[in-house]
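User: Some background: our group keeps a shared notebook of sequences we're curious about, and every so often someone picks one and asks for a predicted structure to add to the entry. Today it's my turn. The entry only has the sequence so far, pasted here. Could you supply the structure so I can complete it?
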Amino acid sequence: MLNMFLVLILTRLSLELAQENAADLELDIDLVWSDIKNLNLKGVHVDTVVMNPPFGTRRNGADMEFLSMALQVASQAVYSLHKTSTREHIKKAALRGFNAISAEVLCELRYNLPRTYKLHKKKEIDIAVDLWRFVPNAQRRS
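Assistant: Of course. Here's the predicted structure to add to the notebook entry:
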């Protein structure tokens, strides 16, 4: 059985860390460093997507771009972290906009986000986050 791992990376630092971790664990994975808008994954299909997308706070809708792409390429499931405050929006977008069969919050978490951008005012912030499981509808892919 062929196992394929595709890892999408957003920042240079994340890429370097992923490369180190993959080497340490002796994993054979493909790392792709790209802006989600410029990524062409047509025809690429994987069983499961696990992601921690941007929360869409800094750039409105960034999280939705990731969720849309994940539901297009996954055949079995998408696991993703999203801010709890956006729960209803996430569910509606997944089920109605992106044609998911189901969208379920598996658990609620607290995420301590350190200051990483100049626009962040506080040294760190505690954010309520949901871990979601989405089931894509492979028959309704466009």
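Suggested note for the entry: The beta strands are 6-9, 30-33, 46-51, 74-83, 102-114, 124-135. Residues 1-35 form one domain.
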